[in-house]
Structures
1.
Amino acid sequence: QSALTQPASVSGSPGQSITISCTGTSSDVGSYNLVSWYQQHPGKAPKLMIYEVSKRPSGVSNRFSGSKSGNTASLTISGLQAEDEADYYCCSYAGSSQVFGGGTKLTVL
Amino acid sequence: QVQLVESGGGVVQPGRSLRLSCAASGFTFSSYGMHWVRQAPGKGLEWVAVIWYDGSNKYYADSVKGRFTISRDNSKNTLYLQMNSLRAEDTAVYYCARGVGVTIFLLDIWGQGTMVTVSS
């Protein structure tokens, strides 16, 4: 149950696009199309942003999109806005358990 | 509205026990799997445990297996986490979350968390 690998930080200017990668193994990300992404603002509970690799829950902006190739999943945020500044965590089902990434701090410059 | 409210956190000495509770409202609690997820200070999220909607299946992270027990009382709409043999590394905010999706491992609703500090 090793954590998925994410970059510690990414940054972008308002209006730009950024991509956060999430690398796992053939036992988690590579085996299941069950990758999700969570957004967490300081002092708040996480919020589901993407599920099953690329699906968006109702109410989540279409500026958020997800994809996967092999053992690596990605979250792309287009048209960056100030309120997107937060920590982002990927998560993968791993067969009767799940594993989170270490988290990526997104800074909107 | 759909809500999860954790309670029971506090400061506890290493080796002692603590029980967390999570009160659910606004949805049919007995129809959903439930999870505990924790977050150490300044660190990332760590999945802890899951329990099926009827309590028939329970799974744990290796880091807590044998020490923590997840349970639920559907008549009280409440989820529990019994934590025994606590260690300093168990210090974290503990969140309960509702599980949905094909595997019930998708966490769509989260509580606000309760802080557990293990220290002498």
2.
Amino acid sequence: GQNIDQPTEMTATEGAIVQINCTYQTSGFNGLFWYQQHAGEAPTFLSYNVLDGLEEKGRFSSFLSRSKGYSYLLLKELQMKDSASYLCAVRKGSGNTGKLIFGQGTTLQVKP
Amino acid sequence: NAGVTQTPKFRILKIGQSMTLQCTQDMNHNYMYWYRQDPGMGLKLIYYSVGAGITDKGEVPNGYNVSRSTTEDFPLRLELAAPSQTSVYFCASIRQTSSYNSPLHFGNGTRLTVT
């Protein structure tokens, strides 16, 4: 089976840095995705890791440790518009089209 | 390109009624997926398809059926609606490529209430 765990809720202050953790247990691991989802909208792609290490994209970075089954999403210089749910998803199977299994999501509230 | 289009956007069903959630994509993607998302939760995979004529079960297939007669369309059928099927349904697609970091393309969702 598979298990993906994220904190349910987090709160942070505008301008600060926040780290959202994700731990997973799964067979057939083939990459980890982070998606952002604003209330009432579809998820949108943020980042992807398949090898150990840090991937940086502007204010957002994502880290992966395959041996520990652990990833985090780092958001810097938080803005009010970053208030959203952040979904960690593990891809199982081969190629770029394996099934995505999602965690429950972390709801981030950014306060002034 | 319209991307992934889902209809209807909202629907209220009575217990025992049936309906089909429509999903179509114009990106020539061969892989398509149906997810459901309950309030405050992540997405659960219902069914997926790797190409026309081929479908397979995901994590939570009970109570649903799918078909894939064309590359573009992947409808999801609820035969006997139950309150437990109240959820937001997302359709997604992707083309099989060598680019491993290509993400899923999501539709805007169908919000279904069964009372």
